Amino acid sequence: LQRFISASAFAREKRGARATQPAAGVIMLPLAETELEVSSGELLPGVSTGEFVSRAKLSRKIPREHAMLYARCRNKVLFEEIREKRAWTYGIQADIHPFPEFYDFGVGAKGLDPSAFGEIFTVVSGCIEKAASEPDLFQHAKEFLVNATRMSDWNGWGLTDLAMSMLSTDGRLVTDTELIERVNSVKLSDIEP
Predict the structure, then answer these.
(1) Which residue has the higher pLDDT, 107 or 101?
(2) Is the CB of residue 60 less than 8 Å from the CB of residue 103?
(3) DSSP codes, 86-124
């Protein structure tokens, strides 16, 4: 379906710049597209909060399970540093989304303390780099993905999203057993620059 839509007249004739395939490699740092935004009174009247969003592109030549592990490792480090240690926000998350020509890797935080704006980008970049040097974190990410795959109880929306992701990254549907084998076979050196 995704290939059909991508090849359709709608996609070909849509105005605007098209994303190009990034060069081979794990990730392009620094995170390229960053937005910092302050909004007042959304959570409580008179209280200012902020939002942080930063995105980068991963090569589509990277297998899907490598991209998933990459994001999961960063997620844990970000959570510990930004939420637990610094208390800048309740929710921060690293995510990864497949597109026809690249993976979109992003870090986002809503309800961000505006006093963090001066440091947030540097701290997030440091967290992304730190995750590369922690084998225990990588092992935890593998165990998390394997267990999440085993315990999945998909609703219709989630199953459709998963199928689209598999079709766009693998060109076919992948069984849970195969995905678990693939995740277990990944080494830390496979996902780090």
Answers:
(1) 107
(2) yes
(3) T-S-SEEEEEEEE-SSEEEEEEEEEEE-GGGTTTHHHHH
